[in-house]
Amino acid sequence: MRRFLVKRLLYCIPVLFGISLLTFLLFRVVGGDPVDRLAGKYARAEQKEQLREQLGFNLPLWPRPELLLAGDLGNFADNQLFHHLFDTFTFRFGRSQQYHRRISAMILSGLVPSLSLTLPAFLLGLFLQTALALLSASRRGSRFDRLLTLACLVGMSFPFLALIIFGQSLLAGRFGWFPILGFPEKFGLGVLTHTALPVLLGLVAGLGGGVRFYRTILIEEAESDYVRTARAKGLKESRVLFGHVLKNAMIPIITRTVVVIPFLFLGSLLLERFFSIPGLGYMLVDAVNSSDWPVINALTFVGAVFYLGAVVLTDVLYALVDPRVSLK
Amino acid sequence: MKRIAVPGRASPPPPAAEPGVWRRLGRSPAARISLAVIVFYLLLAAWGCSGWELPDWRTVNYARAYQGPSPAHPFGTDIHGRDVLAKTVIGARTALTVAFLASVLAVAIGLILGLLAGYLGGAVDGIITWVYSTLESVPYYLLILAFAFVLQDRSINLWGMEFRLEGINAVYLALGLTGWVGLCRLIRGEVIKRREGEYVLAARSLGASPLRVMFRHLAPNVLHVVIVTFTLGFVSYIHAEVVLSFLGLGAKEVPSWGVMIDESKLELARGVWWQLLAASLAIFGISLALHVFGDALRDALDPRTRGTKR
Fold first, then answer.
1. Confidence class of residue A177 from pLDDT cuts 50, 70 and 90?
2. Strands, E, within B144-275: which ranges?
3. Which string of DSSP letters, residue by residue, matches A201-242?
4. Does A280 touch chain B (CB under 8 A)?
C-alpha cells in the first residue's frame, strides 16, 4: 500500500512540473509584461521600473546556458523561469494586485464558503442522480424511463446561466423564499439559508448529465451474464439491483465522482458570482475582471494539485471496492 | 515517387462510409428532426438578418427602448431600442463560428497528436501524454478562463504579420487549444489497438512511410471517434462561449448570447424578460438538437451499441 502510494505520488511530479511550466508560459511569456497596464498612464519611468523589479519582470525570461558553462551559477539561476518554478512549487504565489493580500491566505479563506456551497450540492446530487438512475434502469423502456431520459436531455441543454438568473429572480426575488444573495460573516446557521437556493440550482443543473451517465453504466452492467444468472437463481429484483448491479458499477461511478471533487474546492464560478458567496469561484471571476493575473496563476496551480490528489484517491478507492484490483 | 496500389486502399472501408450508417441514422425520426434544427441554425447564422423583415441589430432607437414583444419586434427591444430577435440571430452566428473554429482546431490538434502518439510510441508518445495529462489536470473552466484571459487583447506576430486577438478570436483559440485533450486520448487508444492490424502491416511492408500509414490508413478508421467528438464538443463550445462572453472575456462588438444574458441580469428587475428568453431559447434549441443528433450518430457509428435498443 505504501509503495503504491509513493509510486502514484511520484507520477504526479512531472505533471506538477508541467502545470508550473504551463502557468509560466501563459502568464509570463504569452501574457507579457503587465507593468504598463498596472502602473497606469501617468506613472513615471522610475515607478514603472520599481514595479517591474518588484514583480521580477526585469529579469531575463529564460536561463542562459553560457552562464552555466562559465560557472556563474548565481546569475544562471536568476531568471523568471526558475523563480516561477520555485515559487509555485513552494506555494509562494505572492500578493494579489488588487487587494495586496497574500494569495495563499485568500485561497484559505475562500475554501469554507466554496465548500459549504459545493459539498451539499455534490452529496445530494450524487444521491439523487444514482437513485433516479437506478429507478430508471430497473424499469427500462417504461414510460417513466423514457420521460426521465427526455427530461435529462432537456436539463443538459438548458443554459446554466439562464437557470441561475431565472431561479434567483423568481424564487428569491419575486416569491422571497430565499435570501437574494450574500454570505454570513460568521459560520453558523445562516450559511444554510444563504446557500439553500444556490445548492438547489446546482442540483437541478447537474441532474440531467449525472442521471444519464449513471443510467448508461447501470444498463451496461444489467445486461451482463451474471445478472441473468442472479435473476435465474430467483433473487429478488432489489437484491439483484443493489447487491450485484450497483456493486459492479462502482468503478465507473467512483471514476466520475472522485474526479469532480477538486471542483468542489474551487467552488462554482457562476453560482458564487450571482449569489455573492466569497469563495474561490468568486475570487477567480473577480480576478479575471480586474486582470489580477497572480491570483489566476495561483488558482490554476492549486486546482491542478487538488485534481491530482483526487486521481490518487480514485486509485486507492478502486482497490477498496474491487478485489480484482490490487495495490502494487 | 511512383504511386503503388497499396492494399490498404482495399482495406475495410472506414465505418463512416458504410452504407448502413446513414440509413440507420435516417431511420430514427429524432435524428432527422435534430439534423433539420441544426441545419436551420446554420442557415440562420450564415444568412444573418438581411433579406427578410428583420431590422438591422445595430439600429439604435431610444424612443423604442425596452418594448415588449410585438409583431414588429417578436422578442421586443433592448435598452438601446435594438431588435432582440436580430441580436439573437447574429448571436447564433457568433456562437456557431466560435464553436466551429474551436472544434476544427481541437480536432486537428487532437487527431494529429493522437495519431503520432499512438503510432510512433516511445519518446513522442511520452511527451504528448505528458502534455495532455498536464492540461487535463487543470479543471476545465479554470483552464479556458486562464487561456482566454491571457490571449484576450494580445497581439501576436506571425511571420511579420500582426494579429490582434480581440473578442471571439481569443475565445475560439482558447477553446481549441484546450479542447483537443479528450479526442487525443481516444485516438491514441484506438491507434494502439489498430496499429498491428493486417492492413497497417500490409501498407508498411509495401514501403508506405509512417506519415502515409497514419493519415491514409489509420485516420479513416478512427473517423467515427472524430465525428462523435466533433458533434458533442460543439455543444460544450457553444456553452463555453456563452459563459466566457458573459464574464467579459468573449464577444465585444458583436451580439452574443452570453452578453445578452449578462444584460438581461439587470433588465429582469424592471420586468424586461424577453432578452433572457430569446437567448435561452436559442441556446436550448441548438444544444438539444446537437445532443440528440450526437446520440443518434454514436448509436449508428458505434458497432458495440448496434442492435441493442437504448
1. confident
2. 154-158, 161-165
3. HHHHHHHHHHHHHHHHHHHHHHTSHHHHHHHHTT--HHHIII
4. no
User: Which pLDDT belongs to residue B88?
Assistant: 86
Q: What is the DSSP string of A176-193?
A: --S-SS---SSSSHHHHH
Whole-number pLDDT of residue A328 = 54
Helix and strand tally (H, E) in chain B? 13, 2
CA distance B114 to B108: 10
Q: What is the mean pLDDT of each run of 10 residues along chain B (310 residues)?
A: 44 51 79 90 80 69 74 74 82 90 94 92 91 88 87 74 76 90 90 86 88 87 86 89 86 85 82 85 93 86 52
Contact call for B130 and A270, based on CB within 8 A? no
Contact B283, A159 (CB under 8 A): yes
CB distance A161–B150 less than 8 Å? no
Q: Please state, in angstroms and rounded to a whole number, the distance separating the CA atoms of residues B116 and A106.
A: 42
Distance (Å, whole) CA A136 – CA A144: 7
* Under 8 Å between Cβ of A201 and A167: yes
Minimal CA separation from B160 to chain A, in Å: 17
Q: Which of A15, A166, A296 sits opposite B137 (nearest CB)?
A: A15
A310 interfacial to chain B (CB closer than 8 Å): no
Q: Does A164 touch chain B (CB under 8 A)?
A: no
How far is it between the farthest Cα atoms of chain B?
76
Question: Rounded to whole angstroms, how far apart are CA atoms A33 and B265?
Answer: 35
Q: How far is CA B17 from CA A241, B20, B21, in A?
A: 40, 8, 7
Q: Which of B133, B139, B276 sits opposite A303 (nearest CB)?
A: B139
Q: Identify all chain B residues contacting A157, using CB atoms and an 8 Å cutoff.
A: 235, 283-284, 287-288, 291
| DSSP category for residue A278 | -
**Residues A57-66: b if buried by 16+ CB within 10 A, e if exposed:** beeeeebeee
Q: In Å, how far is A276's CA from the nearest CA of chain B? A: 14
Pairwise CB contact (< 8 Å): B134 & A22: yes
